[in-house]
Design goal:
There is one protein chain. By secondary structure, this protein is α/β, with parallel strands linked by helices. The chain has one domain (17-129, 136-147): Rossmann fold (3-Layer(aba) Sandwich). The protein is built from 3 helices and 7 strands. It has a 7-stranded mixed beta sheet. Strand 3 and strand 4 (74-78) form a beta hairpin. Helix 1 (9-20) crosses helix 2. The structure holds adenosine-5'-diphosphate and magnesium ion. Adenosine-5'-diphosphate is lined by residues 6-9, 11-12, 33, 35-41, 58, 103, 127, 129.
């Protein structure tokens, strides 16, 4: 488990932009944290780091949005309104050639791949956040090590 503190939305984006450098096809990141914690801000930084040109917004009403203009495709999911009992076929994305980011992943525990990087964002105050990354398999452990060793991640 690794933890970072950010003091502004730009810092959260900077962190996820650096994280994007280490991602490969099939990687899955989950984002947990209250409404307004910074999950979408985090995803915007990740998209920037992947070289995605399009504007990234919360996909709450569409559940999943695909972005194809970057180094790797990004599948951005928001399962705020989905429950674990529903089969909406999201797992079909996990083994494709892109990176999957899931906001509110705690809503669909049965559908998540075993090996995933679980990221929790907690609001400390107006502009301060803690970002905690927990790995649950060999691939996510590797990503976690790389971002921890990256001196530019916490610039
Ligand atoms: P979520 O997707 O988790 O509901 P958003 O990313 O949409 O949250 O919104 C996070 C809000 O918190 C934004 O308005 C952002 O400007 C603000 N914010 C303030 N400080 C930070 C920070 N350090 N990191 C991320 N967001 C922050
Ligand atoms: Mg959001």
């Amino acid at each position: 488990m690794h933890q970072w503190i950010t003091h502004a939305p730009e810092e959260t984006m900077h962190f996820s932009e650096r994280l994007a450098v280490f991602l490969k096809p099939g990687d899955v990141l989950t984002l947990s944290g209250d409404l307004g914690a910074g999950k979408t801000v985090f995803t915007k930084g990740l998209a920037k780091g992947l070289g995605i040109q399009e504007m990234v917004n919360s996909p709450t009403f569409t559940i999943v949005k695909e972005y194809q203009s970057g180094r790797l495709p990004l599948y951005h999911m928001d399962v705020y309104r989905i429950s674990d009992e529903e089969d909406i076929g999201l797992e079909d994305y996990f083994d494709q050639d892109g990176v999957t980011v899931i906001e509110w992943a705690e809503n669909i525990p049965s559908w998540l791949p075993d090996d995933r990087l679980s990221i929790t964002i907690e609001r400390v105050n107006e502009r301060e956040r803690t970002i905690t990354c927990k790995a649950s398999g060999s691939r996510s452990k590797h990503i976690n090590e790389e971002i921890s060793n990256d001196e530019r991640a916490s610039d």
